[in-house]
Amino acid sequence: MTIRLSRRAERLTSSLIRDILQITQRPGVISFAGGLPAAEVMPPLDFEGLADDYRQYGPSEGEPALRSLIAQNLSTLGMDCSVERVLVTSGSQQGIDLVGKLFVDEGAKVLLEAPTYLATIQALGVYGAEFKGLPLAADGIDPDDLRRAIAYRRPAFVYLIPTFQNPSGFCYTDEIRRAVAKVLDETDIPLVEDDPYRDLVYRPVDRTPICTYLERAPWVYLGSFSKITAPGLRVGYLASSPSLFSGLVRLKQSSDLHTNRIGQAWLARFLGSAGFDEHMARMIRIYGERRDAMQAALERHFEELAEWRAPAGGLFFWLRLTRECDTLAALHAALTRDVAFMPGDPFFPAPALRYSALRLNFSHAAPENIERGVALIAEILGEFAK
Amino acid sequence: MTIRLSRRAERLTSSLIRDILQITQRPGVISFAGGLPAAEVMPPLDFEGLADDYRQYGPSEGEPALRSLIAQNLSTLGMDCSVERVLVTSGSQQGIDLVGKLFVDEGAKVLLEAPTYLATIQALGVYGAEFKGLPLAADGIDPDDLRRAIAYRRPAFVYLIPTFQNPSGFCYTDEIRRAVAKVLDETDIPLVEDDPYRDLVYRPVDRTPICTYLERAPWVYLGSFSKITAPGLRVGYLASSPSLFSGLVRLKQSSDLHTNRIGQAWLARFLGSAGFDEHMARMIRIYGERRDAMQAALERHFEELAEWRAPAGGLFFWLRLTRECDTLAALHAALTRDVAFMPGDPFFPAPALRYSALRLNFSHAAPENIERGVALIAEILGEFAK
């Protein structure tokens, strides 16, 4: 018997990240694979006094107190966004899914960075998106590349992660941010700007959202609380230009009615408390130390093997290997020696030009394991590089 | 400027239920419109000792403890379903959305009851489903109708709510449950069985899921905790036959990674506690009293205006009006007099034969308001009936 599924379902491939994360949760494994906050850095959750008020069904847009804090925060970034255009989502991943639902018909073209966030490739691919990857350099994409690709492909939208990008850690310069906005305004192509790492900053750089520079092109801005608080809560948000908002809210409603209210209520209280700034300062100090530890370890073990930049923020080092390497085979070998990384391949949207690379997360492993893990990975890669 | 959205997005219509629920949250309104649990019946939420363990990202399938309790419960219903085929969802609404993602391409046919749950019409419609409504009687759909519709339409799947159906409150007889299963087995058409009201039972009736009778046809069974605990938690679940499960998990992952863990952890503890049975007994007693109060009020005020059955379970009375009536206009009049109901129209999938009807919820209004609200609605409908 054959069951007729949607083309969407037939397009599903097994998720590498999912499989790897399961393996790396084995005790004793030093994992640089995920993008997980460190347990010792996450704030304690305290629901005292909140729980009973949020048992009932709630509004699809989200809790007013949380939306209001988000809108205030976006205003400080220069975004033209009132509270009426903030939608709380079940994690930032849902924002990506809603964008797919809103824009993507079978065969719709989407421009994005190469490499880019692999779960975006997966989530938009489910709707039948066809991708064109724009080569990403340390200072951003090339605005002329973008202009040419728009002219040639007429994409449904452009998806970018301009700040502390996943997987690369790269951060667009102010000049490129403005130039990208100009191209989008001239062509009226919507921008989906994914910005989950914004607040994890270890060295001052420009982080102005590209959305704030747009004068004409529609936009959706995706934000997350997972990286700075507790991802288990599954609370993220989006904001958008006026023309897109009501469609996004209705798609949110048909997806899951609304986001869990207890998580929203806790976040509204925590973000508005004195403890929040203290928590952020501590998180940034600890992650900054781990970043430095990884940079030092890489300098010791990867000089010959790879090129990289110490990221100004975010959670990742991106190593471009100097020799070609079957990084997936290397990962399998690494797992037998209780260390894990993310191979670079799945971050490249097909059919993009790929290069051998890996992504190393520095927030989750204890500092004393960073040197040991990096040394081990260098040794294994040395065996696999051609 | 025109933004190119997906056909999916262009299909969005304003959601009546959403608009009505907003109005009915005005203080002083007696609302029979929603399907909301009563605040005074919901269990208190207590996260003591749970919170910090569930801050990190979790498994897409859900928390093992909760999945295991769900699997045990499904086994007692006679369902052949191991814990490996239980997926925790962000409310039962997400289960419906995932089913749409899995099965529905543009123009796919879906058979469902007429009337049926309006948010299902909305959620599947977003994916381009075309509906064929099967007339629903008090003992279920007609299995011969089903057989003919399958032969003629070759649907992607059949969606049914056999137990305490929304909006009708009807409950399929055992004979019809078995006959429906036989037709599905003979034709290999998947069944999506939505069962959120199962545990709200005021009079003993057969409630065996139709899925348990299937020998060959694939199935997805959707369950909810919203009606018996606290909908604000947004935790529901699905179980499925083996061939469909991995696709559903991967679609869940690309939708929101996983369901919020705090809600899952609380539910696992509460469902496994002695307090749970006590809570259910109290909830059923209170809702049963409200059901009886509404039945008495209807007998006093609706004898001439409508036909109905006192439901054996669930949350709703469904009134089939004896004269044609513009129930939407009547609702607007009702709202000016601070009372609300759901007009029947949006529960009919287009292009189905409709009849004038309303849905009245009896769980949410305080008993002393039921008589007053029902009397007022009868008065207003008398003015609007032709």
TrEMBL record, chains A, B:
Write down the required cofactor(s): pyridoxal 5'-phosphate
What SUPFAM superfamilies does the database record attribute to this sequence? PLP-dependent transferases (SSF53383)
By its UniProt entry, which InterPro entries does this protein fall under? Aminotransferase_I/II_large, Class-I_PLP-dep_aminotransf, PyrdxlP-dep_Trfase, PyrdxlP-dep_Trfase_major, PyrdxlP-dep_Trfase_small
Q: Which residues form the Aminotransferase class I/classII large domain?
A: 49-375
A GO MF annotation of the entry reads: pyridoxal phosphate binding
What are the alphabetically sorted keywords of the record? Aminotransferase, Pyridoxal phosphate, Transferase
Q: Which CDD domains does this UniProt record tie to the protein?
A: AAT_like
The processes (GO biological process) annotated in the record are:
alpha-amino acid metabolic process
Q: Does the keyword Transferase apply?
A: yes
Summarize the subunit comment.
Homodimer.
UniProt similarity note: Belongs to the class-I pyridoxal-phosphate-dependent aminotransferase family.
Q: Could you tell me which PANTHER family the record lists for this protein? A: AMINOTRANSFERASE, KYNURENINE_ALPHA-AMINOADIPATE AMINOTRANSFERASE, MITOCHONDRIAL
Instruction: Please identify the protein, giving its name as recorded.
Output: Aminotransferase
| Originating species | Methylocaldum marinum
